[in-house]
């Protein structure tokens, strides 16, 4: 009787150069199969082969281009700058814009700024150019946490009013975003506004900016809203109900959001 391990047919890996040739030749009938296998091996193949595959992807369909953008964001190679610029001009795809904003040469990015600068790229542009070229921070293109992050990572010195404005924006965003939930707390007595992860991050960033008066005001606001919630009839009803962990999280989040909305910082 044959060994059961010998009954399975051994699979031999096709040479990468063969797979690349199949993928590049759209008439080969093996594009899908070769794409899947090259992606599986991508992180382990020679860099020259990675470059060849990425170039082929950028000259392929949208799905392949988007995959290549994600890889180039992590594994930048300046040889792709011209190709990405061509993709940006031809397809107006955000993946190309983000790669250029983060990695493109200063000359290219500043020259193409009108085509590159948007809500998806502005954060990276701020980190690169605020200190060097007087690039203006457009807070409308950034989330509140991105704005605070830019403040901490550049030499820009925000006023207390500017920092407070971002905390106000963040509170509005949290209160109005139905998908944002409070983190789970082991002890219901420990629940507070800081159970929203974004508030915890904001507190850290404000402290990093050494805006201590703003930080103190924010902490006092947190305590005030938390006290209002815990003294409310809604809260008293919730903690008496036999809710599961997730259902309790949904309910307590809803109450906090309502009191945050009514008492913005």
Summarize the structure.
The protein has 15 helices and no strands. It has 265 residues and is an all-alpha fold.
Topology:
Blueprint: H1 16-24, H2 31-41, H3 47-58, H4 62-74, H5 81-91, H6 94-103, H7 106-111, H8 113-116, H9 122-133, H10 144-153, H11 160-176, H12 197-208, H13 212-230, H14 233-240, H15 245-262
Helix pairs in contact: 1-2, 1-3, 3-4, 4-6, 5-6, 10-11, 10-12, 11-12, 11-15, 13-15, 14-15
Structure report:
This protein is mainly α and 265 residues long. The chain is 65% helix and 0% strand. The protein is built from 15 helices and no strands. α1 packs across α2 and α10 runs parallel beside α12. It starts with 15 loop residues before the first helix and ends with a helix. The mean pLDDT is 91.
DSSP E strands, number: 0
Helix content range: 55-70%
Q: How many structural domains can be distinguished in the coordinates?
A: 2
Overall 3D form: flat
Summarize model confidence as the mean pLDDT.
91
Helix/strand class? mainly alpha
Name the helix and strand elements from N-terminus to C-terminus, one letter apiece: HHHHHHHHHHHHHHH
In whole angstroms, the N-to-C terminal distance is 77 Å
Instruction: Tell me the major beta sheet.
Output: none
Percent strand: under 5%
| Poorly predicted runs of 5 or more residues | none
- So how many helices? 15
Radius of gyration: 26 Å
Give descriptors for this structure.
mainly alpha, 2 domains, 0% strand, 265 residues, flat, 15 helices, 65% helix
């Amino acid at each position: 009787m044959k060994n059961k391990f010998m009954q399975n047919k051994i699979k031999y890996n096709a040479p990468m150069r063969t797979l690349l040739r199949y993928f590049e030749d759209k008439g080969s009938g093996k594009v899908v199969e070769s794409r899947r296998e090259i992606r599986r091996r991508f992180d382990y193949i020679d860099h020259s082969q990675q470059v060849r595959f990425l170039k082929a992807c950028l000259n392929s369909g949208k799905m392949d281009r988007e995959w290549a953008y994600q890889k180039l964001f992590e594994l930048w190679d300046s040889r792709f700058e011209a190709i990405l610029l061509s993709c940006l001009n031809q397809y107006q795809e955000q993946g190309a814009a983000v790669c250029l904003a983060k990695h493109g040469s200063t000359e290219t990015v500043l020259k193409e700024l009108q085509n590159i600068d948007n809500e998806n790229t502005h954060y990276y542009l701020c980190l690169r150019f605020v200190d060097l070229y007087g690039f203006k921070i457009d807070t409308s293109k950034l989330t509140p946490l991105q704005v605070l992050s830019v403040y901490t990572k550049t030499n820009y010195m925000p006023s207390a009013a500017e920092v407070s404005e971002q905390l106000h924006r963040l509170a509005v965003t949290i209160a109005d975003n139905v998908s944002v939930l409070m983190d789970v707390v082991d002890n219901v007595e420990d629940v507070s506004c800081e159970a929203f992860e974004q508030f915890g991050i904001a507190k850290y960033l404000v402290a990093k900016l050494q805006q201590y008066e703003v930080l103190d005001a924010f902490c006092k606001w947190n305590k005030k809203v938390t006290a209002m919630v815990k003294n409310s009839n809604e809260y008293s009803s919730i903690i008496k109900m036999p809710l599961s962990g997730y259902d309790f999280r949904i309910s307590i989040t809803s109450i906090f959001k309502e009191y945050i909305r009514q008492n913005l910082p």
